[in-house]
Amino acid sequence: MDPPAPPAGAAEPSQSQPLKPSPPLPPPSSSSNPPISDPNPNPNPSPSPSPNPGPIQAPNTNPKPPTPPQPRPPSSFNRTLPPSQPPSQPHFPHFPSAPPSSSASAAAAAPRGGMAIGVPAHHQSPSPPFSSSFGQHFAGLSRTGVNVAESTSSPSTSQVRTPVQGMGMLGSQMRPSGIPAHQQRPVQSSLRPPSSAPSNQPAGSQSFQGHGLMRPSSVGSPASPSPSASQSVQSINQPWLSSGPQGKPPLPSTAYRQQLNPQSMQQRSHIPPPQQSTPTSLQQQQQQQQSFLSNQSQEHFGQQVPPSRALHVPHQQQITRLQGPGNQKPSSLVAVQSSAVQPGIQSRVTNVDSDEACNSILSKRSIHELVNQVDPLEKLGPEVADILVDIAENFLESITRSGCSLAKHRKSTTLEAKDILLHLEKNWNMSLPGFGGDEIKSYRRQITSDIHKERLAAIKKSMAATEAAPAKGSAGQASGSARGSQAKTPLNIIGSPNLKNS
Amino acid sequence: MSNSSTGTGTSSKQRAASSQPSETSSKRKRGVFQKELQHMMYGFGDDPNPLPESVALMEDIVVEYVTELVHKAQDIGSQRGKLSVEDFLYLIRKDLPKLNRCTELLSMNEELKQARKVFESEEFD
Asked: What is the spatial distance between Cα A469 and Cα A483, in angstroms, rounded to a whole number?
């Protein structure tokens, strides 16, 4: 539970401030924390600082911080999570119900999970497996660099709890009850999070808000502490926080996504340098999508990044087009066309703030923005936005799966734009200009059998021969006899009164 | 998008025959409509010098549209033999502005032909 490293905490003291309100919740669990977090030398007892420094530290220590971070997060999460655990359980039936005892470890893990969004990976010894994977997901979402997942390669159900809780903390949108088995579940399952907004969140959401703040800060500085990124993260997070108490948390499904990310995060060894792109929610969402897609592809191929770029492009394109030019530079589109440039993607991914990542691919905010573009006076009900988010996520997942299958069929381990394009073109009848590359669309001539050609020739002959013949009645009879004589009459011949000479 | 097996002998022959020229021109030329598109974009409200990426995107859209149209026209025209202008007019029958513009251009073309014919015949006179 001790914060992973004092420098992390010192690096961003401002960020820890918002966390303070959340920490007071779980005082009793603090006792359990110390045994968990032995590796951490940091003796910081207060829960608030622990989660804060954790996430912050993760980005600073970018290249997979070893043991120290682990103990820190669990303790902090333990404090906040326990109350939310029981109610959240029903929401995640698929998750192995981690016993409350593990909550301590989970708590440790949870902060990581939350931090996973921005925190590289403070793996805690007891709950690391779960939390790490959790963090990985976040990392994947928000940035590739986060190494949270690394240490948590071994999923433990108990730890699963905490990450879930952590997730809730992140955006105050995640369900505290955790997603115990997120690691075990395949990617698909993660995409089917219960769409119903968890009602139990509001209680814990506020407490999580503080953590959510930490997340962005930690996320913002993956490799090198970037104050601008953290600032942008905070600003971006704030809308989340402000909206948190008002309504239901944006996406309960985000918790699932985050779980996926930790797994993929493991594969990523480095955190790309943060980009300077304008920190807008749109960008973050796009990056989240990209990172999520890249994570998925990684899971499929067991590789690192490369697909993220390809994935990045199509979604970015779609999002850009949908939401207007926005921040995306047009040059990015051109650059995207050249398949698989990892550094570019990673930099973009790192830009994505953790708070966006925790909400899975799409957030309610982006849905509302889209609706705004269509009609400024239109309003969407919360259930409608939820369903739209679910639809979008399912769509993205199916597209990614099919694209990965095509890439595999191509005997390649890299998911490229042409895989996605082919699938969309053939199955969804969607043609996306701007990504097609330089291939010439070949035309497939209609396959006409020989018999068909003979019949057509015969018809033309008869038509030419009987042009002079005026008899329409005879033509009617001829058409009848023609049909009878021929097995199939080409009905596409127009002007068939002179089908055949009677 | 790429040639998929048609299965019949004729189609395979066709593919083999077309593979050679397609290989040499496997990459279609970029910037075929660049200059014209730049002016058109300016006319529709864009910057006098639009971004190259925007022009490339527009060109992709245009080429894709034309390719799609020609393929459909080929599908229809092959039933009657050869491609003809009628096939294209039939395909855009639902798009009134385009249809009207097409018929207008065609009629103007005919008038010009007539005028040139008369002019040339007058010259010789």
From this structure: 19
pTM here is 0.41
Q: Which residues of B touch A438 (CB under 8 A)?
A: 26-28, 30
Contact A333 B3 (CB under 8 A): no
Return the structure tokens found at A217.
């800060």
Q: Tell me how far apart the alpha carbons of residues A252 and A194 are, in angstroms, rounded to a whole number.
A: 7
pLDDT score, position A483 = 52
Q: C-alpha dihedral over B37, B40, B45, B50, to 10 degrees?
A: 30
The DSSP-derived string for A75-96 is HHHHHHHHHHHHHHGGG-TTS-
Write out pLDDT tens, residues A170-228.
444 444 444 444 444 444 444 444 444 444 444 444 444 444 444 444 443 444 444 44
Measuring CA to CA, how many Å separate B57 from each of A290, A335, A434?
21, 13, 5
Chain B residue numbers touching A334 (CB-CB < 8 A): 52-53, 56
Q: How far is CA A395 from the centre of its chain?
A: 11
Distance from CA of A487 to the nearest CA of B (A): 19
Distant-in-sequence, close-in-space partners of A256: CB < 8 Å, separation ≥ 6: A179, A182, A189, A190, A191, A192, A193, A360
Distance (Å, whole) CA A204 – CA A482: 80
Chain A residues within an 8 Å CB radius of B30: 438
A20 to A51, A205, A213, A286, A326: CA distances (angstroms): 10, 14, 10, 31, 35
Q: Residue A106 and residue A258: Cα distance in Å, rounded?
A: 15
Helix, strand, or coil here: B27? strand
Closest by CA to A142, choosing from A317, A313, A289, is A289
> Which tokens go with B110?
């005919």
Q: Give yes or no for A444 touching B (CB within 8 A).
A: yes
Q: Shortest CA distance to A110 belongs to which of A140, A144, A148?
A: A148
Q: Which residue in A358, A402, A408 sits closest to A182, CA to CA? A: A358
Quote the CA–CA distance of A178 and A194 in Å, as a whole number: 12
Q: What is the CA radius of gyration of chain A?
A: 28
Strand partners, B27: A439
